[in-house]
Write a structure and sequence with these properties.
With 280 residues, the chain is an all-alpha fold. The chain is 79% helix and 0% strand. It has 16 helices and no strands. Helix 8 runs antiparallel to helix 9 and helix 12 packs across helix 13. The longest helix has 22 residues. The N and C termini lie far apart (59 Å).
Length: 280
């Protein structure tokens, strides 16, 4: 069937595509889009990629994540394999696909979104366009959290950190805390802030710079929730540690780690983050 489609006139393929959608044969619709893509990609790459975007926009709203995802990933792989130039039009196709992913995509949608972003970001990095790639990760973090919530909160946080969007990081923090027990809030705040510092820092100088950002994250969290963070040994440790890092006092950080070891010990993940700060 695929070979027959390769020789079929374009207008007949378009008509057949519409027929497939009307009878909800989305797999066949996907195959037709791939046929059109194969036909155009050597002589008119832009038109070929536009076919994939159109197919994605056609299939995602109809709930076929699998079929649409294959079209999306064909585009991102195509960009990499053909070493497509960086241009506003080529970048726009990436965002068109990202924005087409369905809100109810679930785990399959989030996994596809992540793979697509990784490939699209690699294309950007190949053209020294890291700033544009960060925006992909911002969208990925938001989508992951919306789609699968608590189950993938850790991944959503990681993607948001790669995007370096503080508002998104705070949203992950507030969303996670709102679904946890009240007595877990301080641990969640401390884990996220210290994880951010560790993610961004490779030296004590980095920690000093990002400690101020850590304080800003706490302030943003309070603004978003409309209340102060709870006063507990864990939040005292966090605030004092950020202050110590701001003045590059590794000795003071070590002393705080020892002083608050009992409270920190209730959360092994927080202990790991605190120890990583000390090891930097």
């Amino acid at each position: 069937a695929r070979a027959l489609e390769e020789t079929m006139p374009v207008d007949r393929i378009a008509k057949k595509l519409q027929d497939c959608v009307e009878r909800e044969d989305y797999y066949q619709a996907q195959q037709l889009c791939l046929s059109l893509y194969s036909r155009h990609k050597r002589k008119d790459a832009a038109r070929a990629f536009d076919v994939l975007v159109s197919g994605v926009k056609l299939l995602f709203p109809r709930g076929d994540v699998t079929a649409a995802s294959e079209l999306a990933l064909t585009l991102s792989r195509g960009y990499l394999e053909a070493k497509v130039e960086f241009s506003p039009g080529n970048l726009s196709r990436i965002h068109d696909i990202l924005d087409a992913y369905p809100e109810d995509g679930g785990k399959a949608g989030a996994q596809s979104f992540e793979k697509f972003v990784e490939q699209a970001a690699k294309w950007c990095y190949g053209h020294d366009r890291g700033t544009e790639a960060k925006v992909f990760f911002e969208k990925l973090g938001r989508y992951t959290l919306r789609c699968i919530g608590d189950e993938y909160a850790g991944k959503a946080l990681l993607h948001s950190m790669r995007g370096n969007n503080l508002s998104d990081i705070v949203t992950v923090m507030t969303t996670t805390a709102s679904r946890a027990r009240p007595d877990e809030e301080d641990y969640i705040i401390a884990r996220v802030v210290l994880r951010f510092l560790n993610f961004r820092s490779r030296s004590l100088a980095d920690l000093q710079a990002y400690a101020r950002v850590g304080t800003a994250l706490i302030d943003m969290y309070e603004k978003q929730t409309g209340r102060a963070v709870p006063e507990t040994p864990v939040t005292h440790f966090l605030r004092l540690t950020l202050e110590a890092l701001t003045i590059s006092s590794a000795g003071l950080v070590a002393g705080l780690r020892e002083k608050y070891s009992l409270a920190l010990g209730q959360d092994p993940a927080l202990v790991r983050e605190a120890d990583q700060v000390l090891a930097t």
